[in-house]
Each structure stands twice: as C-alpha cells, then as structure tokens.
Amino acid sequence: KAITIVIFCEGVASLLDK
C-alpha cells in the first residue's frame, strides 16, 4: 500500500538527512 511506501520514504529520508 501507499502507506508502507510513505513510511519507507520517511525512514530513508531520515538516514539521508544525517
């Protein structure tokens, strides 16, 4: 579902933000 993609995207963005 799209919700899973959003959560995954937020996780990746969090790692890239560091």
Structural class: mainly alpha
Rg result: 8 Å
Helix content: over 70%
Q: What oligomeric state do these chains adopt?
A: single chain
Per DSSP E runs of 2 or more residues, the count of β-strands stands at 0
Q: Return the average pLDDT rounded to an integer.
A: 93
Uncertain runs are: none
Termini Cα gap: 27 Å
Shape: rod-shaped
Order of helices and strands: H
Largest sheet: none
Beta content: under 5%
| Helix run count | 1
Describe this structure in words.
By secondary structure, this protein is mainly α. Helices cover 89% and strands 0% of the residues. It contains one helix and no strands. The protein has one helix spanning 2-17. The relative contact order is 0.19. The mean pLDDT is 93.
Gist?
With 18 residues, the protein is an all-alpha fold.
Write the layout of secondary structure elements.
Layout: H1 2-17
Attribute tags:
18 residues; mainly alpha; 1 helix; 89% helix; rod-shaped
